[in-house]
Every structure is written in structure tokens, then in C-alpha cells.
Specification:
The chain has about 425 residues and is an alpha/beta fold. It has three domains: about 5-105, Winged helix-like DNA-binding domain superfamily/Winged helix DNA-binding domain (Arc Repressor Mutant, subunit A, Orthogonal Bundle); about 115-225 and about 405-425, ATPase, nucleotide binding domain (Nucleotidyltransferase, domain 5), CATH 3.30.420.40; about 240-400, Nucleotidyltransferase, domain 5. About 45% of the residues lie in helices and about 15% in strands. A hairpin with a 4-residue loop joins β10 (about 245-250) and β11. α3 (about 30-40) packs across α6 (about 70-80), α11 (about 300-310) packs across α13 and α13 (about 330-355) packs across α14.
Length: about 425
């Protein structure tokens, strides 16, 4: 805090700070309770600011919320009493600075968690995720997905329940990422093309039933894995600050895409928007599950890469393809396959740039590996084939989160807490 800020401090601020050291956690003076009542509507927005790393100090929180320092202090104290954040009232001042530094705000590392689950073509995984997208515990991955979604989701919830028992953490929600478009409001998986589930399986209801059967009285949610990856990247990864963020990624099979506009995933009228995997990039190419040929889904995914090398795809196709690019990138055959898939991917991205005009593109899965292996080639194809790409104003970057879909599934479960912390945690 500079000299002007110190001079502007109110008597209420001084009393709040002076009393803080002598109170146990959760106790509030009558004045603080009054300010909290005025600022209660700011609890959710304040938590989201800390959750996404946009309010590291009370001064920043005060400015972002547009409230007084006293009200921001009361809001921060309430979030701390709920076990969601920690407030450092006596942070060390940086060397050479003048005045008292603002209170530091951090997420409570011992706070509640949500159960996050992901199902993909090569198996499933469960995790406990705290605020800020922090993975608290992760189960070993299973490498088999059966044809009955209830059996699979029961197993992944059981894995999450084991993590909760091991850690002793409080669970406040559950979120599921699946490799399918999820229709809303029904919560049904319309086209689980890469797992042997029936079309229209009510995955959200099945997941919620398994969560209840495990004894967890928490809300449960489900969404498309790439949509959730995009949401996680926007809040915690390489998509921070983008207003129109396009994410294109390979799953363990196939290709998905998502658009986040002003912080919210664009899912269309019923949750089915942006099936970018079925954009044709090679007319007459491989037959696609959608009935067409040459779609991004079958021309740029791990299976397509292995086929371009003349290899028979095995069980762990994503890992095998990435390992080949990383460890054998100078091999002429591998290099040729990289260039082939990069050119096809670039064509697809160029078409999406022309239609969507994003301000940032993130690539995940095998596409992230291709970008690392041939960045100039990919950027050149996008620039040559798109109106807006020619200006060089559309950055194409790698996703930053290693388990983005799991973190995104957790974001679904955290959203009710971000909307109304008091109602969820004290309800």
C-alpha cells in the first residue's frame, strides 16, 4: 500500500486489522457483520476472482468488486471462515517498497474438493480437485470402458470415493467429462462415437445416481470433454484473458472443438454446437463415423497418425502417437506423417478462423504435439488459407493443462459454490 492509500484508510479499516490478530477464525465484530450483509452478494464474485487468480490481494479485490476496503475485508473474512480462502494480513513488503502491503489472498489448500471424472476411449480416471483447478489426488487410470455406462460410471465414482476416504476431504460436488456431445437440458450423450455406449444414454442422470449410491449427497453434472477442457483453459490455463477462445484437440480417439465467449462456453441452443471434428479437410478421405468422408475427426487424430505411418493402431493410440513424434521426430517417415497431419489440421483451423474469428486458438492432445513439432508449417497453412489469419493476429498456442478435461469437469461442480458459497456450504 502506498502513502496515499495509507492516508485514505478509514477508522473501520484500522479496527478490523487491529482486532484480527486477537480473534479466532470465523469470529466477527458487529461492524463486520453489518458490512458483510451489505457485501453478501459479492461473495460469489469475490470467490471467482480468487479462484481464477485475478485477485491476489485485498486491494485488487476491492477494485474489481467496486466496493469499499472495509466491505472487501468483510467478504474476504467470510470466505476464510467458510474454509475457502486464506487471508495473510501481514504479508512481507517487497524490497524497496514503501507503505504497508495489501492483505494477500490465497485459496485454502485444506479446503473442500469436488470429485471429477473423465471417461475416454482408452479408459477412465477420477480425481479430487480443489479451487483454482488444483489436483489434490488422482486415481490410477483404468484402460477399459465397457458398453454399460452405469457399470463404468459406478467404477469411476468408486475410485473417487476411495480418494475421499484416503484424504478425508469434504466433497461439495461431482463433475463428469465424456467424449460425446451432451444435449441440454436432458444431459444425454447423443453421439458417444468412440465408446460403445448407446446413443442418447442419460449420462448425467446415471452419474448422479451413482454418486448418490456412493453416499455422496452432492449435485452432479456432466459435459463434453473438449468443452470442459476449454472452460478449464480459460479459467486456469493458456486461455486466460481471451474473449473469443477456440480450442481444438484430439481425444484418445477423434477430434473435438469448443468456443468460449466472454468466459462462457458457446454450446448452442441445446448443447450441441461446434462439432468441429466433422469438418471435411480431405474430400474422399477416410470414412467418418458421421457418414461423411475425410473429416477432421478421422484425418488428424492419433489413429490417423498411426495409419499414416503404416502402423496398426493399438490400445493406447494417443500415447503411442505422441511418443513417436517426441522421440522419433527426425525419422523421415514420422516427419512425413507429422507434415501430412499438420497440413490437414491447418486447413480445418483456417476454416474455423474464417467462420468464428477467434482472438486465440489453443491446441490439445496430439494437436498440441504437432504444434510443437511443426509450428511454422501450421501457422503458414492457417495464414495462407484464412482471411484473418493472414494478418498474423490469431495466436495459435498449446494448451497448458495436462488434465484439462478433468479440471473442466471440476469447474462444473464448483460452479454452484462460485454462484452462492453460503447456500452450498452452509445450506
Amino acid at each position: 500500500m502506498n502513502g496515499k492509500e495509507a492516508a485514505a484508510r478509514t477508522p473501520d479499516d484500522a479496527r478490523v486489522d487491529g482486532a484480527a490478530a486477537g480473534r479466532t477464525r470465523g469470529e466477527r465484530t458487529p461492524g463486520e457483520r453489518t458490512r458483510l450483509e451489505r457485501g453478501r452478494g459479492a461473495l460469489g464474485p469475490a470467490l471467482e476472482l480468487v479462484h481464477t487468480g485475478r485477485a491476489p490481494t485485498r486491494a485488487v479485490l476491492t477494485s474489481a468488486l467496486g466496493v469499499t476496503r472495509a466491505t472487501a475485508g468483510a467478504v474476504a473474512a467470510e470466505l476464510e471462515s467458510l474454509g475457502l480462502i486464506r487471508v495473510d494480513a501481514r504479508p512481507a513488503a517487497p524490497a524497496g517498497s514503501h507503505g504497508r502491503p495489501s492483505h494477500r489472498l490465497a485459496l485454502d489448500p485444506e479446503g473442500p474438493v469436488v470429485l471429477a471424472a473423465q471417461v475416454h476411449a482408452d479408459g477412465y480416471r477420477a480425481a479430487l480437485v480443489g479451487l483454482g483447478g488444483r489436483l489434490v489426488a488422482t486415481s490410477p487410470g483404468c484402460e477399459m470402458v465397457g458398453a454399460d455406462p452405469a457399470d463404468v460410471l459406478g467404477s469411476v465414482v468408486a475410485a473417487g470415493l476411495a480418494l475421499l476416504r484416503e484424504t478425508g476431504r469434504r466433497c461439495v460436488g461431482a463433475g463428469l467429462a465424456v467424449p460425446s456431445a451432451v444435449a441440454e437440458p436432458e444431459g444425454t450423450a447423443l453421439n458417444p462415437l468412440h465408446v460403445a455406449w448407446p446413443a442418447g444414454a442419460p449420462v448425467r442422470d446415471i452419474f448422479a445416481a451413482q454418486v448418490r449410491a456412493a453416499g455422496l449427497d452432492v449435485p452432479a453434472f456432466a459435459g463434453n470433454d473438449i468443452n470442459l477442457m476449454a472452460l478449464a483453459e480459460h479459467r486456469h490455463g493458456a486461455g486466460r484473458g481471451a474473449r473469443h477462445l477456440l480450442v481444438v484437440a484430439t481425444g484418445h480417439r477423434g477430434v473435438g472443438g469448443a468456443l468460449v465467449v466472454d468466459g462462457r462456453p458457446h454450446t448452442g441452443s441445446s448443447g450441441l454446437a461446434l462439432e468441429v471434428g466433422h469438418l471435411v479437410v480431405r474430400p474422399g478421405g477416410h470414412p467418418c463415423y458421421c457418414g461423411s468422408r475425410g473429416c477432421l475427426d478421422v484425418e488428424t487424430d492419433p489413429r490417423a497418425f498411426l495409419l499414416a505411418l503404416g502402423r496398426t493402431p493399438g490400445d493406447s493410440q494417443l500415447r503411442e502417437a505422441q511418443d513417436l513424434v517426441t522421440a522419433h521426430g527426425e525419422d523421415p517417415a514420422v516427419r512425413a506423417a507429422v507434415e501430412t497431419l499438420t497440413d490437414r489440421l491447418g486447413l480445418g483451423l483456417a476454416g474455423l478462423v474464417n467462420i468464428l474469428n477467434p482472438d486465440r486458438i489453443l491446441l490439445g492432445g496430439l494437436h498440441r504435439t504437432l504444434l510443437t513439432a511443426a509450428p511454422e508449417r501450421l501457422h503458414a497453412v492457417v495464414a495462407d488459407r484464412s482471411l484473418w489469419g493472414r494478418s498474423g493476429s490469431v495466436p495459435v498456442l498449446a494448451t497448458a493443462l495436462d488434465r484439462g478435461s478433468l479440471v473442466g469437469a471440476a469447474e462444473l461442480a464448483w460452479q454452484p459454490v462460485l454462484d452462492d458459497p453460503l447456500a452450498v456450504l452452509n445450506g
